[in-house]
Amino acid sequence: MRRAIIVACLECYALLLALLQWTLGVDTDEAKYLLNIPYPHPPGVRWALSLFDGLAMQEILVRVLLATVLVQAVWLVWDTTRGRTEHQRLLLATLWLTCGGLVMQAGTVMMAPLTAVQGLALFYFTRRQVPPAYIGVLWLFSLFTAYQTVLFAPIAVAALLHQRCSLRAKALYFLVPLALLALYTATNPLIIASFAIHGSRDLHSSVFDRTLATLHLWAIGGSGILSLFGTYGMFRSRSLPVAASFLLVFAYVALSRHDYYAVLFAPLLLAGAVERPAMFRFPHTTVLAAAAIAGVLLFQFTRMAAVSSARMTVERLVVAGAEGPLLIEGSFGHQWQYESPWPVYRFTDARVENAGAVVCLERCPDWDRSSWRVLQTGPETWVKLEWLAYAMP
Amino acid sequence: MEGIKAILCRMKHPGPLTFGLLCVGAAALLAPRAFALLPLYLDSGVRGQVQQALERTAEREGLLLSGFTVRGIRSDGMTATHRMHTKGRDMQRCFTVDFATFTPRACDEQS
Questions:
Q1: Inter-chain contact B23–A176, Cβ cutoff 8 Å?
Q2: ipTM, 2 decimals?
Q3: Chain B residues 2-61 with a CB less than 8 Å from chain A
Q4: How many CB pairs below 8 A link A and B?
Q5: Rounded distance, CA A94 to CA A88, Å?
Q6: Under a CB-based contact definition with an 8 Å cutoff, are residues A106 and A28 in contact?
Q7: Which residue, A294, A296, A295, A330, is CA-closest to A313?
Q8: A137 with B19: Cβ contact below 8 A
Q9: pTM of the predicted model, to two decimals?
Q10: Which of B50, B58, B88 is the closest to A53 by Cβ?
């Protein structure tokens, strides 16, 4: 009964975080997964999410599902810390639930939170005897969820080495999934092109700026407290696989500079803390401080987050009674495809005649606008008069 | 057979079989497609032509590049499908593009 109540409370927490993300609308990366657009990550989870495609509640359903995975992963933390005192286990579980990576990423339709949970599961297997094939299956599934799983390769190796099995079998379980991932990459040139584009992103920033930005994400990832104690724990306990993965994640975040990678630090910091839980001298104060920091992060996040302009514009178009394809001038993200109930095309002169609305994210091109009326100015949006007349007789 | 069993440790768990089936299934699905795209990786000239063909088709039709999947590459042209990713059922179109003119044609328009 006690466990059922805890599960229900955790689910309420997951629901709350998912609802918060839902109010902000879908961003371009999230739309890729919701619409099963085949880049940048392999199709393991993306394909599963596409099974919900077409459901009116797809977005919120997926958000709740992914938030649940991240929040309920606390049971994995609980089991990983078996053998520690009840106080230490509670403390580590609370640190997982209040770490900034979880608070700010639970409920997003992204692969990074899932990678974090998969990293945590791999760490769990470094401390448990299981059939090594299970680790092979987890490694394969994790790699086909997102490329960044390779950052946890040292932990996967440690988990396999911990099992009773021949070295040849361990090598097979580790290397075959990597080979399959390479084969998948070869089948999708768009991914390779996307790597080339993202690899050259933000090249002008200095090493100092990158390090500072990465430290900022490291601090957010563990809400400061877990960041400090987790890092100290992993290096003090000489946990080589965790430390190696940590350095890989640090380098990757420094190169890619996406805020949502903060969550990748969370399982590693927790693993570091699990190695030396005795370092928490004031557990009650630590829990309170972690909860307070999580609250502040959440408040800052909601204050700074803005509702997607794609959602607002499409809502206005729907209210105005627009119909037909939506044309967009300028570079646009996949969120437009997700929010729009109509097909979305780049603006071309040939398509204007059959279009229902035109959104200009850059300077509007010229076309015969005698049968068009401007609906809003930010972003500049035009609707065909016939639809407005239909909506407002 | 004994060797495979030894490699996959003991067969008393369903794990080795699941792992083996998943790997063989994935390889069987992916290998033919990777083979069809081999010219893309072996010949930089073909790579440039495919890129140009996709970009021109996307520009002309107002489509997003991310919706294209290259299905086959010949010495004189390529075949690609475009999926209009939308909520619900996606509309899919097939194009063939001649490398000489880079003009896309619907697959069913081919003589």
A1: yes
A2: 0.84
A3: 6-10, 13, 15-16, 18-19, 22-23, 26-27, 30-31, 33-34, 37, 40-41, 50, 58-61
A4: 114
A5: 10
A6: no
A7: A330
A8: yes
A9: 0.89
A10: B88
Chain B CB within 8 Å of residue A168 CB:
yes
The tens digit of pLDDT for each residue in A72-93 reads: 999 999 999 988 888 889 999 9
Could you give phi then psi for residue A319, rounded to 5 degrees? -60, -35
- Binned at pLDDT 50, 70 and 90, residue A1 comes out as confident
Assigned token pair, A4: 């059922």
- A299-332 pLDDT, tens digit each: 888 777 777 899 999 999 999 888 889 999 999 9
CA distance B19 to chain A (A): 6
Q: Contact at 8 Å (CB) between A66 and A106?
A: yes
Name the strand (E) or helix (H) holding A350.
Answer: helix A349-352
Handedness of CA A279, A283, A289, A292 (dihedral sign): positive
With DSSP H G I counted as helix, E B as strand and the rest as coil, what are the percentages for chain B, rounded to 5? Answer: 50, 25, 25
Cβ proximity of B57 and B97 under 8 Å: yes
DSSP per position, A3-48:
HHHHHHHHHHHHHHHHHHHHHT---HHHHHHHTT---SS-HHHHHH
Note which residues in 132-161 of chain A have CB less than 8 A from chain B. Answer: 132-134, 136-137, 140, 144
Q: Under an 8 A CB cutoff, do A38 and B70 touch?
A: no
